[in-house]
Amino acid sequence: MTAHLASQPGVQRVPSPKLTLFVRRAFLDAETCTGLRAAVDATRRPSTVSDFNGDRAFRTSETGDLDPLDPLTIALDAQIAAFTGLDPTHGEPIQGQRYAVGQEFKPHTDYFEPLGVDFDRDCRIAGNRTWTVMVYLNEPEAGGATRFKAIDKIIQPETGKLLAWNNRRPDGSPNPASLHHGMKVRAGSKYVITKWFRERPWR
Ligand SMILES: O=C(O)CCC(=O)C(=O)O
Ligand SMILES: [Fe+2]
C-alpha cells in the first residue's frame, strides 16, 4: 500500500528513512468536515488509553464513535479505503477526537506494546495495529499540532488534511519511530477522525 498511497494525486511523503508518513491536504472538503464534527460531538466522552501509566493527564481529549450506519461514515470509510489501498475489512470503526483548550495526547505510539498488560485484550482477535489514518476536521486558533518526535517533524492541523503512517517496520515489528504527540490546543478547539488498521480482519 505504500506504492498505492505514494501514487495518489496530491499526496506528499515526509522524507525520513525511519518512518513511512504521507500527508494529503484537502482530502475532505469543509462541508464534510463540518458534518463529521457534529457526529463527533453527538457521542463524545473522555478518551481512554491502553496500558495506563499512572498519568491521568496523558490523554485529556474526548472520543466519539462515528455511527457505522451513517451515510457520512460509510462514504468516509470508502474514501479512505480507495485512497490508501488498505483492506477495509482490517479497519477498526472510525473514531473522532475532540481537544478543548489545554487538552493533548502526550507522546505515544498507536501500536499496542507486545509486553503490555492490555495486549491480549486489545490484539487477540485482529492482531496489532498496522496503519493509522487521521484527518483534521478543523484548525484550532493556536496549538494542536501533531509532533513526530523521532523524525523531528511537526504537522500543523488544517481542515481536511489527512495523515497516514505505517506503525510497523519493514520486517513487521512495531516501529518506535512512529512516536507522536497530539500537542496542547492553546486557543479554539481541535477535531480529528482516526482510523486504525489491523494485521487481521477486525470481525
Ligand atoms: O490529535 C493528534 O494530533 C494525534 C491523535 C493521536 O495520536 C491518536 O488519536 O492516536
Ligand atoms: Fe496516536
TrEMBL record:
<dbReference type="InterPro" id="IPR045054">
    <property type="entry name" value="P4HA-like"/>
</dbReference>
<dbReference type="GO" id="GO:0031418">
    <property type="term" value="F:L-ascorbic acid binding"/>
</dbReference>
<keyword id="KW-0847">Vitamin C</keyword>
<keyword id="KW-0479">Metal-binding</keyword>
<dbReference type="InterPro" id="IPR044862">
    <property type="entry name" value="Pro_4_hyd_alph_FE2OG_OXY"/>
</dbReference>
<dbReference type="InterPro" id="IPR005123">
    <property type="entry name" value="Oxoglu/Fe-dep_dioxygenase_dom"/>
</dbReference>
<keyword id="KW-0408">Iron</keyword>
<feature type="domain" description="Fe2OG dioxygenase">
    <location>
        <begin position="90"/>
        <end position="199"/>
    </location>
</feature>
<dbReference type="GO" id="GO:0051213">
    <property type="term" value="F:dioxygenase activity"/>
</dbReference>
<dbReference type="Pfam" id="PF13640">
    <property type="entry name" value="2OG-FeII_Oxy_3"/>
</dbReference>
<dbReference type="InterPro" id="IPR006620">
    <property type="entry name" value="Pro_4_hyd_alph"/>
</dbReference>
<keyword id="KW-0560">Oxidoreductase</keyword>
<keyword id="KW-0223">Dioxygenase</keyword>
<protein>
    <submittedName>
        <fullName>2OG-Fe(II) oxygenase</fullName>
    </submittedName>
</protein>
<dbReference type="GO" id="GO:0016705">
    <property type="term" value="F:oxidoreductase activity, acting on paired donors, with incorporation or reduction of molecular oxygen"/>
</dbReference>
<dbReference type="GO" id="GO:0005506">
    <property type="term" value="F:iron ion binding"/>
</dbReference>
